[in-house]
Structure formats: structure tokens, C-alpha cells
Amino acid sequence: MNQPLIEVRGLSASLRKGKQELKLLDNVEFQIMPGRALGLVGESGSGKSLTTRAITRLLDPAFRVSGEISFRGDNVLKLNQSRLRDYRSTKVGMIFQDPRAHINPVYRVGNFLTEALVNNKNLSRDEAEDRAVSLLNDVGVRNAGDRLRQYPHELSGGLLQRVMIASVLLAEPELILADEPTTALDVTAQSDVMAIIEEQRLARGMSLLLITHDLELAAACCDDLAVMYAGHIVEYGPQVHLDPQHPYTKQLMDARPSIDVKSHRLPTLSFTRDEHERIQLASAQAQEVSV
Ligand SMILES: Nc1ncnc2c1ncn2[C@@H]1O[C@H](COP(=O)(O)OP(=O)(O)O)[C@@H](O)[C@H]1O
Ligand SMILES: [Mg+2]
Fold it and tell me: Using CA atoms, how far apart are residues 235 and 41, in angstroms rounded to an integer?
């Protein structure tokens, strides 16, 4: 069991813009062991979603991608179409920020949940519905039988996110990629949904890549943390929130609201050009040290 489930090495992705090459992911490296959770943390635009899209090979074809994404020893970037389909449908499951954008609004919840089971796993419609009801119960949806007959617009964001989680669990993936899974929800739904992901992950022994801009949230439910800045991982380890070394991680910590400290304005993340260059240099040095 000592082999990582997924290992990302030297992952870079760039786009050509006129004569310029925009490097949006820069030598990203991390690994997740089976059953463990990694929090990928960074501000908006730092490259977190691009990283998940690279892992599922859903980046726009205009991107030039290099490096290696090894899943149980197979390089995802080199899988042929049929193995890629298998990888996407059975090995990794994705939970997104806005479930409404990923659930067909004209399908009933039941159809959304059972379609893959009926088509790919050859279950009868009744069997598939039983599985769906049982999973909806697992993720805390009451009156699950009735929910199957509703349309997405009849459900709250929190309920719909649970439906999304249930649909991911139906495929029994080994790795869950959760990209800001609670950001679009109200505060009470946020903690409920996070608790469900956590509970199901532990119960099923799945690995998790949790993407968030919230370092403390990630620290609370992940074994390791990777802090991303401008397409690059600048700090990586189990305890980076306790003793942040990198100036960006420090600012990320300072920008969080606290109930102990009264302040009229929260500090925002901002760097002068010099500071930005210093950060890049610090990252490069940190990398040299870790090699
Ligand atoms: N298809 C694209 N074309 C051009 N730029 C893109 C594209 N997708 C993402 N970007 C840019 O890449 C950077 C990282 O994006 P993203 O991974 O979505 O950030 P986030 O950390 O907020 O998820 C951003 O600056 C974004 O504008
Ligand atoms: Mg994003």
C-alpha cells in the first residue's frame, strides 16, 4: 500500500497568446496516498481548477501540457480513449462548486442518478433506483424516494450538492476531486456538505483532492496541504498552516476573518512587483531545497 494513488510530477500547462507563451501551471508536483486527503489551496486564479482539469484530461486542447500524472502507475496523459473513459467514469469522481451547472435541468433527479447505472452497469431501473435511494440516505437526503421524482430547480443548493455527491459515489471512484464544493452554498449547508464528503471518504477509503481558497478548512479535513500561487505550488506539507514559511501562505492566513480579533477591514492579498518577484524566488529556492 505504499504506492501513491496519484502522483503529479512536473505538470506544466501553457497557452500561446500571440507571440507570448502564458504558463498557467508551472511545474506542479504533489501526491496522494490511497485513502488520504490533500488540500490544494490558493486564491482565485491561482490555477487550482486548471490542475483538476489536467488530472481528468479536460483541459482545452489549446493548452500545451507537459509532465506526468500517474494514477496507480498509469500515466493519465498517455491513456488511450477507451482507458481514459474508464478512468474518468470509474476511477475519479468530480464534485464542482455549482451543482446546478452540472446537472441537466430537464432531467428528474432520479434519471440523473440512475442513467449511468442502467447504461453502464446493466442494472434494471428498479435496482438502480434502490441504489440511488440508499446512497441519498447515506448523504443525508430525507424522503429520497420522493426526491427522485423532482427536478433540480425544486431542490436547494445544499440538497443538490448532496445529489451530486451521491452521483459520484454511485460510480465508486478511488479519488474524489472536489473543486470548491461548498463555496456556492450558504454557511450551514457548507459545513453539512463538507462533513458528508469527509464521512463518506473515510467510510469508503477514498482519496480526496479538496480544492479551496480556505486554508483552515483544508487543514481541518486534509492530511496534507499544498499552497498554490500563480500556477505553482509554493508550500507543501502536513502542517503548513501552523508555521507558514512562504510569504504568500502567511498572507493567506492573515486574510481570514477571526472571531477573536476586531478589525474594520480584512487585510487583502496584495503584492508589489518586487514582492511578487521575491515570492517567485522563494518558491524556486524552496524547490531547490526539496529536491
Ligand atoms: N481557457 C483559458 N484560457 C485562458 N486563460 C485561462 C483559461 N482557463 C483558465 N485560464 C486562466 O488561468 C488561471 C488559472 O485559472 P483557474 O485554474 O481557473 O484558477 P482557480 O485557482 O481560481 O481555479 C487564471 O488566470 C485564468 O484566467
Ligand atoms: Mg477554480
Answer: 10
Closest ligand to residue 14's CA: 1
Burial class (CB in 10 A: 0-12, 13-18, 19+), 141: buried
Residue 272 vs residues 73, 198, 231, 251, 268: alpha-carbon distances, Å: 42, 38, 18, 13, 13
CA-CA distances (angstroms) from residue 167 to 95, 113, 119?
9, 5, 14
| pTM beyond 0.90 | no
CA distance 271 to 254: 14
In terms of DSSP bridges, do strands 37-41 and 207-212 run parallel, antiparallel, or are they unpaired? parallel
Ligand 1 and 212: CB distance under 6 A = no
Report all structural domains of the chain as residue ranges with CATH numbers, in order of start.
6-106+151-290 (3.40.50.300)
Which ligand 1 atom sits closest to the C-alpha of 42? 21
CA distance 132 to 64: 39
22 Cβ closer than 6 Å to some ligand 1 atom: no
Q: 132-151 pLDDT, tens per residue? A: 999 999 999 999 999 999 99
How confident is the model at residue 291, as a pLDDT?
45
